[in-house]
Amino acid sequence: MTDTHIVTIDRHIIDEERRKPEASGAFSNILTDMALAAKVISRQVNMAGLVDILGRAGHRNVQGEPVQKLDVFAQDVIYRAMDHTGHLCCMVSEEVEDFIPIPDKFPAGSYVLLFDPLDGSSNIDVNVSIGTIFSIQRKVSDQERGSLDDCLQPGRRQLAAGYVVYGSSTMLVYSTGAGVHGFTLDPSIGEFILSHEDIRIPRSPTRYYSVNEAYYSRWNRGTQRLLDHLKGTDGSADGGGFSARYIGSLVADFHRTLLRGGLFMYPSDPKQPEGKLRLLYEASPLAFLAEQAGGRASSGEENILDIQPEALHQRTPLFIGSGELVDLAEHYLAGPTDDG
Q1: What does the DSSP assignment read for 134-193?
Q2: Domains and CATH numbers, the chain
Q3: pLDDT by residue (tens digit) across 93-115?
Q4: Nearest to 263 by CA among 246, 248, 275, 249
Q5: Is the dihedral of CA 98, 102, 105, 110 positive or negative?
Q6: Using only C-alpha atoms, what is the Rg of the chain?
């Protein structure tokens, strides 16, 4: 943050808008409303140990996973912050099976919001950092209140993406295609303050990798060889020297990778042949941010941003971080995948 002035997220969004004379203000208002929703969720997350919102809500989401009480709260906060503003035609959430049209009683707009209201919520009870992920796209159909075509767009069509990490401090990171900027919430004044301007993913020799190694035996040989190379157990002259860093909360793991560099990966395996992470709500928004910060994201076979979604809850493997390390991952995954 500059030493000469304080920049709030609202001011930063307005300054970005002024660089685009054609801007109507609707897009900026969506970002401002997301920041407001993040403040409300942050307040409730910080109270989670004091009030009865910890634990499971007693039912499962469309993915078949137990829904946490804070999941329900975060979903409701974001929906109610966005449904009446007139800027969106529809929304899509990880927690809801179908796309969510704006109610008829409210005006509809020209944008689509895709979001994961509370990523990593299984870590709530152990006080590990969790987060919110979001993406904004422009409506492409002629349906006033949106259609699947508006939601199923490749990541390169994103107008903006971002996430909020609720940790020792609450931080909102976003990009509108002109760099990546981070804002830390000052709870004493209730404002997100610019703290990380123009974030760039560090390049090598940053040597970190982040993956759940418990699944090593499930991976194909290409993925196993990649990890062996990073750990220096493959006998290659240029392998090894990497340190493992794994939290188990996607937003937290990506946040560290964005700031410190390295490679985060969640490969596919026989139990999850399509991968585990959701393309629209997790992989694609984070891929947009990684690329804007000078990094890359891949499924192991193609750039995440080039994948044409076919379903709202489509999953994908993910390799994301410093560009040269994502290149290395693709190199190993393109090699032999069996023991022959």
Answers
A1: EEEEE--SS-TT--HHHH---GGG-SEEEEEEESSSEEEEEESSS--EEEEEETTTTEEE
A2: 9-196 (3.30.540.10), 208-333 (3.40.190.80)
A3: 999 999 999 999 999 999 999 99
A4: 246
A5: negative
A6: 20
